[in-house]
Amino acid sequence: MKFNLKYVLIISCLALSIISCEEDIPEMAELPVPNSVSLDADAGDWQNVMKMDYLTEISLPAPADVDSDTYRSELEELVAITVKRTPEQERKVRYWASGGVLRWNKILRELVAKYNVAPAPGSATNPKKPVANPPFASRVYAMLSVAQHDALIATWKLKYSVNRPAPSLTDNGIDVQFANTELPSYPSEQAVIAGTSLKILKTLFPLEAEFLNGLAQEQVNTVRWGGAGTESDIADGWQLGDFVASKILERASTDRMSKAADPVETYHSFFKIDPTTVPVAWISIASPKVYPILPMYGTVKTWLDSTAVFSALPPPPPKVGTEAFKKDIAYVKSISENRSREQWRISEFWADGGGTYTPPGHWNEIAEELLVKVQWSEVRTARTFSLMNRAVMDSGILCWYAKYKYYFPRPSQIDPDIKTATGIPNFPSYTSGHSSFSSTAGTVLGYLFPDQREELERQFIEAGDSRVYGGIHYEFDNLEGRNSGVAVGEIAISEARSDGADD
Amino acid sequence: MQTTSMRFGYRNPKHFYPSNTTFRQPISTIHVIIAFYIGIMNSIEHENRNVYMEPIKKNHFIVTLLFITFAIGSSYAQGLLDGFMRGKGQLVTALSYSHESYDTYFVGMNKTQNENLGTIKTNSVNFFAAGGLTDYLDVVVSLPYIETQATQGFWSDQKDFQDISLFLKGRFFEKDFSEKGKLSMIGAIGVITPLSDYIADAPVSIGSQSTQLEGRFIAQYRTALGLFVAGQLGYSKRGNVDIDRELEVSVPDAWDYIVRAGGSYKKLYADAWFQHQNSRNGSNIGPGVPFPSNEIDFSRIGFTLYHPIPKMENFGVALSTGFTLSGKNIGKSDRITASLIYNFSVSNTQP
């Protein structure tokens, strides 16, 4: 019998070390708690999106005076809550204090990812379970951002007209988690954000109502736990947020989104798709064939001036068979046959397909990274998302209009040997949605973050190129999508210049 | 399955968590069939590659036999090792060609087919070498080149060098039961790491890009008549992968065991084997879910036959097959491998 002890030792030591080394993936990302550069005290005078006087319409009762008994008892309650704050409550206060607007944006992105799943073939649509495809997603991002934007402008107006100081400045028995700023506390901006975000999102994702309600309640609770606002700050804030959201939802109910899916195929006659206008028509090249995505989305109401937006409608694409067409399809084919690793990477990085935030959501993620660095006030943060997401939605509307007006085939429909690095979207090719969404988002963000303009431009150009690298778009899809997208971005910027925030 | 009690907001967007800790989970894996937008989100996780070789000593003449159950397109290489030692200075090398295909795969545990992929066909060439550093310690290396394609739809083919495997294998126990037989116990550790920057996160891919550390234990009993039975147990620690969409993805670790029985003679080697792998918690195939995070389980059987080439000293050929019986998040693939084997000695002390 032989027993080679040294091998036993070596092998068992190595085996142990293999099994014991745990890979570590950090559990949660902490965002910094912003120490706002500016409180944006004049934000109450900024132009809101809906051009409505919410405060007159809602007519909240005048809040109790700081010397009143009612308010005193509210302060005492807050003392009692804050002195017994638990570590878990502190963790949640820190989570929401990094920015309610940022947090809800992230929550929405995750919801979009969850709902960005195609239904099984032949299954009936379930209005409670929407498919969060990019056009749908861009509208939800816009609706949430506009509600927050408008609600916070009204909040700021009220804050600086009532001028109720932070509770701890009146009662120093309140154990605040974060030092109070000069921002007046009535109404609580966190409660406004909670009320408005909940209303929008639970309407759009009804199956998530309970989950979303839990988040909104927690956000409001952190106002109490952190000692940042009293019951009346919270209650009136919530009511205001909820009210503004109801106005946004009213608009949404008449924006023609309900007709976008077009199950009875009216789009052929609406866009006059026939052989005289479209010699080589798009067809679904999925197996089995799938009805195209939201054919009438191009007729949905825009946020920006629709005449201006539609003046950026791209010209007709080169006809199939012409020299210009041959040149571009040859380029796609050359990529298909000899795709570099870097082209693969770019294609995958920007694909944002099923189960992800979608391209509009990717740009919200990019905006988040920029916003975390600058640490703006809640109201300016909301304006950033609102400006970008409205423009991105409008850019998508324009792009979708072009897709069905020109009804142009994908490269692989013309040449099945063109192989792709990403899935082929089931709708016409011209123009590229990725180019449109991305160039608009990048252009708007470039205005808001001028020192990042060069990098943002590089990013939106790369996002558009990614679709050509993927083999699913011609270069003219990309370039015309980009041109239109930049133009829509410029329209948004010209409106932004006069909204009062950049004076 | 994700529930609404999950706290999306606390997660780091740059990381991806498999299974119950995942923050981007599919609503239903069934929906994978036509993922809007991407068109197809069906994964192809490839089969295990088993390169298996075996020398036996008979009288004073060393006959090194090798058998290869080499599954192509695999991300994982358990089964590379056998219960025999080469002997000091003895080397065996093999060049193999494998073909593997499947048109059915498991999304979670559900059998699925997809007209947008058709059949996934994989061809590969593998170089394998094993040599005895001492009579008790072998070094084993395997190096595959893989090409894979879908017969339908428009996904691009993939081809590249995949993962190199490097193992050290030591026999720490051997006991002769006089005439009856011999029991040996072997421990091994190895590293498996990508040789190229192939794409890990695509429906048609050649591997997961994960660097793996593997520990294995093998026990083998061989009778004097040449019949043997062997069992082995392995654990593979799989490193996180950075995928192109800038997520760091956790790749589930896996246990596996192999049971093998056969006969090993001077002019013939034959065996039958069964392998089962069970991954730790991971995700199911689904839209937006990075493929490397999938939890991959499977059960396979296979057969091997080896014969020396007449009149060509030290050369032999092997034919082997493998069939997937059941699985989770993997193709139900069948595989056939042909190998050319060359044995030689670099030692002057051959008995």
Corresponding CATH architecture of the largest domain in chain A:
Orthogonal Bundle
The overall number of domains of chain B is 1
Radius of gyration of chain A: 26 Å
As a percent range, the share of helical residues of chain A equals 55-70%
Strand fraction of chain B: over 45%
Kindly report the name of the CATH homologous superfamily of chain B.
monomeric porin ompg
Structure notes:
The complex is a heterodimer of chains A (503) and B (351). Chain A folds into two domains: 43-253, Vanadium-containing Chloroperoxidase, domain 2 (Orthogonal Bundle); 262-496, Vanadium-containing Chloroperoxidase, domain 2. Residues 20-28 of chain A have low confidence and may be disordered. Chain A has helices at residues 5-20, 54-58, 69-83, 87-97, 100-115, 134-162, 167-170, 189-204, 209-225, 231-253, 267-270, 306-310, 323-337, 341-351, 358-374, 378-406, 411-414, 433-448, 453-470, 475-496, and one strand spanning 2-3. The N and C termini of chain A lie far apart (90 Å). The relative contact order of chain A is 0.12. Chain A is elongated. Chain A is built from 20 helices and one strand. Chain A is an all-alpha fold and 503 residues long. By secondary structure, chain B is an all-beta fold. Chain B has a single domain (8-345), classed as monomeric porin ompg (Porin). Chain B has strands spanning 15-16, 50-58, 61-69, 90-102, 105-107, 110-112, 120-132, 137-150, 158-161, 163-177, 181-194, 212-223, 227-238, 241-242, 248-249, 254-264, 269-279, 297-308, 315-328, 334-345. Chain B has a twelve-stranded antiparallel β-barrel. The radius of gyration of chain B is 21 Å and the shape is globular. Residues 1-78 of chain B have low confidence and may be disordered. Strand 1 (2-3) of chain A pairs antiparallel with strand 10 of chain B.
